[in-house]
Design brief:
74 residues; alpha+beta; 4-stranded mixed beta sheet; 1 helix; 4 strands; globular
């Protein structure tokens, strides 16, 4: 038995009451950034840069939502 426990570092914690998962896409370059929108202020907080569909799927898995539930901002 180990004295140290591994934490689930893949999961991203957020408050669904105050934050909404979102992806910000650049119209010019197509670069995608995943993060959260604050429901009160509307500000976007960057979490990670996405590399295509696989990155989006990883973000969805770590947040615990489906790709249809994520808002896209241009």
């Amino acid at each position: 038995m180990s004295l140290f426990r591994k934490k689930n570092r893949d999961a991203i914690e957020y408050d669904p009451a105050t934050q909404q998962p979102a992806v910000r896409k650049s119209i010019c370059t197509g670069e995608m950034t995943a993060g959260f929108i604050d429901r009160e202020t509307g500000r976007f907080r960057d979490i990670m840069r996405l590399d295509g569909q696989k990155g989006l799927e990883a973000f969805c898995k770590s947040v615990g939502v489906s790709a249809e539930e994520i808002k896209t901002i241009y």
